[in-house]
Amino acid sequence: MALSRIPIRRIGNRHNLFMGGDRKALMISGVAAAALIFSAQTLYSTAYGLLLWFTALFVLRMAAKHDPMLLPVWFRLILRYKKYYPARATPFRQNTHNQRLRYR
Asked: In the chain, what are the domain boundaries?
């Protein structure tokens, strides 16, 4: 009996990108650029806002080409993990009463 092959279509396996970059970061940079342009309403702020938008677009596209899940993984690293995990694997560790009850 031969094994059947099931193709994995690209449409069901794509990352959530917008304009070639990470969706959340690109929209946040777009909102920041628009806020800068429309709040100051000068020629300099418009030029700076457009420069900010196109620079963020270029950088986020390059990051998405390298790794599409780069920013979600980085945010998870920053927000969920501690900076230091102390080593606890020692035969001399004194367990608390609750920890002793767990392993009886």
From this structure: 16-81
